[in-house]
Specification:
The chain has helices at residues 2-7, 28-38, 63-73, 85-97, 111-114, 135-140, 153-164, 166-171, 173-182, 187-198, 205-213, 217-220, 231-239, 244-252, 263-270, 274-286, 302-315, 318-343, 367-376, 378-390, 394-404; strands spanning 17-21, 47-51, 102-108, 125-130, 144-147, 261-262, 291-294, 297-299. It is an alpha/beta fold. Helix 15 (263-270) crosses helix 16. It is globular. It starts with a helix and ends with a helix.
Length: 408
């Protein structure tokens, strides 16, 4: 298991720090707590657990608050806990140096919240869960990072089977798969829909799938009376920690018609330089609100896309959305024209009357590079044709089709 290798269960690890990172609702805490219970025998002096509330409706714990709680767990009476933060850190590490303990720091916001709480001795291990990648701990402390991703379709159905029972899943295998697909492989969402069905044993899975499809999915993925359990609320807690440029980028990416986006397309969409776009995209990937699955290409699961769509409609006015979409479609069209011109120069195109233009579309140097761009953007270009037509922009739709005529 990855945590066994990263932390070490039977002997001190070379780098006794493991980071379990991932997007909201992916199961970081569940994994870390489950592993800690299983590894309890390797830590004869016990385990310490603290929820740092880095992404929570409640205020995050300060360093002094967290250290006070940890010191009390180590046997220091509350009245004897030092007030000075540096004295707290010294006492905390002195007490740990005499023991072999696992410290589980759950829900950390950033490295500044975590670093003073690290044991500082090789015989003590620390496991940290965070929605942030905590890169600085990897660089300076040599921490091992384990990035959790969404479940694949078979794993998603297996989780539903665990909660609902094999007979119910086996009776409706196609509906169970459709339900798993709606949840985008997110364990939190899967557990919520499974709990909803458990409360209604007479309801079929197919009926529940239909109800979810006909409703606002994010509104339905919640447990009433527990606001932090809602999928949208969990995403909101990650979103609101970002700087403004990353917030805007996150919202505008909802306007991309296809399943992925390149750095250059994101830059055009936000009307910023590629370098500025890279900074925003990197911040989103560090917060696990976006995945860089290939160099300078990004994607996110469907529930995050729904959340971004909700935000862009709430915050960005119609004029700004139209302008951003116009820039993106102009970039698609001009770059597609340049690409097909390199590959099939003998195929002529219609004059681009009434189409917006950009001062600097992506420069393609050779036919091989042009073919690679067309292949990478194929799904987005086809989706752009349909989106433009559906949005009442037939001029852009047929010009995009004309641009791709030679390629197809």
């Amino acid at each position: 298991m990855a945590l066994d290798a990263a932390v070490g269960c039977t002997k001190p690890a070379e780098a006794p720090i493991a980071i379990v990172s991932g997007t909201a609702g992916v199961g970081k805490t569940s994994l870390a707590v489950h592993w800690a219970h299983r590894a309890a025998g390797a830590y004869p002096d016990g385990q310490l657990y603290i929820n740092l509330r880095g992404h929570s409706l409640d205020p995050a714990l300060s360093t002094t608050q967290a250290l006070a709680l940890l010191l009390q767990s180590l046997g220091v009476p509350s009245g004897s806990v030092p007030v000075d933060e540096q004295v707290q850190i010294g006492l905390y590490r002195s007490l740990l140096s005499q023991r072999r303990i696992l410290v589980l720091l759950d829900n950390a916001s950033d490295v500044n919240q975590v670093r003073p709480l690290l044991p500082g001795t090789p015989q003590n291990q620390a496991v940290i869960t965070s929605r942030d990648s905590l890169d600085s701990l990897v660089v300076r402390e040599g921490a091992h990072r384990i990035a959790l991703t969404e479940m694949d379709p078979s794993e998603s159905v297996h989780l539903l089977r665990t909660v609902l029972g094999a007979s119910r899943i086996d009776a409706e295998p196609d509906a169970a798969q459709a339900l798993a697909d709606l949840c985008a492989g997110l364990p939190l969402a899967l557990r919520i829909v499974a709990a909803q069905l458990s409360a209604h044993p007479d309801r079929t899975i197919a009926e529940h799938v239909c109800d979810l499809r006909d409703s606002d999915l994010l509104d339905e993925l919640q447990v009433h009376g527990d606001p932090e359990t809602a999928v949208a609320a969990a995403m909101e807690l990650s979103y609101r920690t970002l700087p403004e440029d990353a917030l805007r980028m996150f919202r505008l990416l909802a306007l991309v018609p296809g399943p992925t986006v390149s750095r250059d397309a994101a830059a055009v969409l936000a009307d910023v330089t590629p370098r500025a776009a890279s900074r925003s995209l990197t911040r989103l990937t560090r917060a696990h609100l976006l995945e860089e699955y290939r160099l300078h290409r990004y994607r996110r699961h469907d529930l995050l896309s729904l959340f971004a769509r909700r935000l862009v409609d709430e915050i960005e006015n119609d004029h700004d959305q139209t302008a951003a979409t116009g820039r993106l479609y102009a970039w698609y069209l001009q770059t597609a024209d340049a690409a097909t011109g390199l590959i099939t120069p003998s195929v002529s195109h219609h004059e681009r009357k009434g189409c917006p233009t950009l001062a600097s579309p992506t420069h393609l140097r050779a036919s091989a590079e042009a073919a690679a761009w067309l292949e990478q953007e194929r799904a987005n270009l086809i989706a752009a044709v349909h989106r433009a037509a559906d949005a009442g922009h037939p001029n852009m739709a047929w010009h995009l089709v004309d641009a791709l005529r030679g390629h197809f």
